[in-house]
C-alpha cells in the first residue's frame, strides 16, 4: 500500500465478520468519497441505494487471526448487529466533507472492522394484506379455543418476525431507543428545533406537550395527520369488514369494535414494553422520546401500523367464529398494561410522584361522526357513533383496582360539551350524574384556552423552546426573537393562541434577525 492510501475494512450491518471487505482510499479523500467507493465495491448489494443514502458508522471490532490455532470455532460467522454495539463504541459519520484521516488516522488498526455500513430504513406504502408472517395453517383452519393463554400464544406466533432481533423493525426501534434517528423532516433553521407547522387553537400542541412530560399513548383518527395510521386502519375496518362490525346486531357490533380497539392498545403496549426493556435505554429513552416516535411516526416509519395490521387481521377472522373474544381481549390488554406499569414504576422519580398514564385520541371528531347509529353506549341501549365503544375500550385499559391511573383524553375540532356528556357515558363505570358533570366542568375538565395573558406567558413559551437546544441554538433563538419582538407580539396579538405561535415559527423559519419587525 502506498503512503497516501488507507486500507479500511467494512461490514454491512447484520452480516458475519467473514463477509468484511477492504476499501483502499487516498488519505486526502472525504467520507463522501468513501461512500461512493463502498457503493462501487458492493454494487450488487447497493444497486437500489444512492451512495449518499448509506450511513457509515466508525467502530473497532477485533477479528480473530486465522493463523492462531486457538481460534478454531465458528464465532466469526456470527452476524454483527449495529444495535448490539455499545453507544460509546460507535460513531455515526455525518460530515461527508470530513477527511478520512480525521476519523481513522493514517494507520488504522489491523485485524479490525473499522466501518459498519447501514442501508437506509425502507419507507414504502403499506400493502392491504398482512405485511408480516401469515398465520400458520393449523391456526387458521382449526383455531384454538379463545382463552387468554391461547390468544397470547397466537399473538406470539403473529409477532415473532416483527420482534426478531435481526428484523428491520427491531433494528430501527432499538437504535431509536438508544438515541439515534433524529426527526428527519423539519422546517426551521435552528438545529434541534423543528417547526411543526400545526396551526390551530392549540389542541394538538397541548396534547403533544403533555405527552412530552408524562408517559402515554397518542392516537390520531385523521387520515392525513400526525401519528400512526393504525387508528385510521381501525376506522377503515368498519367499511372493509362491514359484515363484522356494522351488522344489524348493534350489541354484537359494539362488542366487536371494542375487541378490535383492545388489539390496537395491545399493539402499542407490546412495542412500549420492548422499548422499556432494552438494555441501556433508561438514559436515552424518555417519555418525550416515546411521544416523538408516536406523533412523528410517518416521518420515521410507522411500526405501529405494521404490527397492528397483522393483529387486526387475526381479530377479524376470530370475531366471526367466537363470541367470547371481547372478554378475553380485556384480560390480555390489562395484563399487558400491568407489565408496562411495573416497568414505568421502576423509572419513577425518587420523590415517589406518579403521573397518570395518558391515552390521547386526537381528531376524535372523525369517529364521533362515523356510523352514528351502529353502536351502543355503555348502557347497551343508547345508540352512538363508533367513538363511544372506542373510548369505552380505552377506559378499560386499567383494571378496576387501578382505573384511576389512566386518563383518557378525546381531542378534536367540533367536540362540544354535549359530546363530552355522551362520551362520558362510554366509560366502563356508571355515567356521570348531573351534579358530577357540573363538578367536572368547575374542575376544568372542559378547558378553554386562555391564550396569552401577559408578556411572561410568551417569554415562558420561548424558555421552553430553549430547553432542548445547545448554547449555539439558544443564542440564535434570542437573536431571532429579541425582547422587543416579544413586547410587540403581545401588544398586537395578545389573547389568541395561534397567531403568536405562527408568527414565532415564521420568524424562526426566515432565519433573519431583522425580519421579526415585518
Q: How would you characterize this protein structure?
A:
With 518 residues, this protein is of the alpha/beta class. It folds into three domains: 114 residues, Ubiquitin-like (UB roll) (Roll); 267 residues, no CATH class; 63 residues, no CATH class. β8 and β9 form a beta hairpin. About 8% of the residues have low confidence.
Low-confidence stretches: 70-76, 122-141, 425-433, 443-448
- State the major sheet: 5 strands, mixed
What oligomeric state is this?
Answer: single chain
Q: How many domains? A: 3
Summarize the amount of helix as a percent range. 40-55%
N to C succession of SSEs: EEHEEHEHHHHEHHHHHHEEEHEHHHHHH
Strand order of the largest sheet: 2-1-5-3-4
Measured on Cα atoms, how large is the radius of gyration?
A: 27 Å
- What is the beta-strand fraction? 5-15%
- Please state the structural category: alpha/beta
Report, as a whole number of angstroms, the end-to-end distance.
61 Å
Output mean pLDDT: 78
Shape: globular
* Tally of individual helices: 19
The number of E-state strands comes to 10
Amino acid at each position: 500500500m502506498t503512503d497516501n492510501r488507507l486500507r479500511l475494512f467494512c461490514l454491512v450491518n447484520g452480516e458475519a465478520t467473514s463477509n468484511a471487505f477492504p476499501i483502499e482510499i487516498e488519505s486526502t479523500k472525504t467520507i463522501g468519497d468513501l461512500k461512493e467507493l463502498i457503493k462501487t465495491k458492493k454494487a450488487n448489494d447497493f444497486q437500489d441505494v444512492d451512495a449518499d443514502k448509506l450511513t457509515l458508522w466508525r467502530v473497532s471490532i477485533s477479528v480473530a487471526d486465522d493463523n492462531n490455532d486457538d481460534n478454531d470455532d465458528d464465532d466469526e460467522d456470527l452476524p454483527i448487529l449495529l444495535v448490539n454495539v455499545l453507544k460509546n463504541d460507535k460513531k455515526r459519520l455525518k460530515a461527508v466533507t470530513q477527511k478520512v484521516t480525521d476519523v481513522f488516522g493514517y494507520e488504522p488498526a489491523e485485524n479490525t472492522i473499522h466501518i459498519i455500513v447501514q442501508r437506509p430504513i425502507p419507507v414504502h406504502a403499506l400493502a392491504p394484506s398482512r405485511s408480516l408472517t401469515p398465520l400458520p395453517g393449523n391456526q387458521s383452519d382449526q383455531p384454538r379455543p379463545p382463552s387468554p393463554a391461547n390468544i397470547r400464544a397466537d399473538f406470539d406466533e403473529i409477532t415473532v418476525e416483527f420482534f426478531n432481533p435481526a428484523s428491520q423493525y427491531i433494528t430501527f426501534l432499538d437504535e431509536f431507543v438508544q438515541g439515534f434517528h433524529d426527526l428527519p423532516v423539519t422546517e426551521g433553521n435552528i438545529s434541534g428545533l423543528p417547526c411543526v407547522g400545526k396551526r390551530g387553537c392549540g389542541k394538538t400542541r397541548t396534547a403533544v406537550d403533555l405527552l412530552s412530560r408524562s408517559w402515554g399513548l397518542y392516537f390520531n383518527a385523521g387520515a392525513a395527520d400526525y401519528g400512526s395510521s393504525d387508528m385510521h386502519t381501525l376506522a377503515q375496518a368498519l367499511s372493509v369488514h362491514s359484515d363484522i362490525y356494522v351488522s344489524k346486531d348493534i350489541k354484537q357490533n359494539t362488542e366487536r369494535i371494542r375487541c378490535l380497539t383492545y388489539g390496537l392498545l395491545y399493539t402499542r403496549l407490546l412495542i412500549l414494553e420492548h422499548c422499556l426493556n432494552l438494555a441501556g435505554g433508561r438514559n436515552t429513552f424518555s417519555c418525550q422520546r416515546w411521544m416523538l416516535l408516536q406523533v412523528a411516526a410517518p416521518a420515521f416509519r410507522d411500526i405501529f401500523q405494521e404490527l397492528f395490521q397483522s393483529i387486526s387481521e387475526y381479530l377479524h377472522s376470530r370475531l366471526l367464529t367466537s363470541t367470547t373474544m371481547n372478554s378475553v381481549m380485556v384480560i390480555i390488554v390489562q395484563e399487558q398494561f400491568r407489565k408496562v406499569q411495573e416497568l414505568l414504576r421502576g423509572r419513577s422519580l425518587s420523590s415517589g410522584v406518579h403521573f397518570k398514564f395518558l391515552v390521547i385520541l386526537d381528531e376524535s371528531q372523525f369517529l364521533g361522526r362515523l356510523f352514528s347509529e351502529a353502536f351502543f353506549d355503555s348502557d347497551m341501549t343508547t345508540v352512538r357513533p363508533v367513538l363511544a365503544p372506542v373510548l369505552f375500550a380505552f377506559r378499560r385499559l386499567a383494571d378496576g383496582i387501578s382505573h384511576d391511573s389512566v386518563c383518557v383524553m378525546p381531542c378534536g375540532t367540533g367536540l362540544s360539551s354535549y359530546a363530552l356528556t355522551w362520551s362520558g357515558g362510554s366509560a366502563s363505570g356508571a355515567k356521570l350524574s348531573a351534579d358530577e358533570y357540573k363538578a367536572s366542568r368547575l374542575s376544568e375538565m372542559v378547558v378553554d384556552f386562555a391564550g396569552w395573558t401577559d408578556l411572561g406567558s410568551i417569554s415562558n413559551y420561548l424558555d421552553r423552546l430553549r430547553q432542548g437546544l445547545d448554547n449555539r441554538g439558544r443564542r440564535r433563538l434570542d437573536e431571532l426573537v429579541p425582547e422587543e419582538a416579544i413586547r410587540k407580539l403581545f401588544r398586537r396579538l395578545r389573547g389568541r393562541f395561534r397567531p403568536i405561535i405562527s408568527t414565532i415559527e415564521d420568524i424562526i423559519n426566515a432565519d433573519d434577525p431583522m425580519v421579526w419587525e415585518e
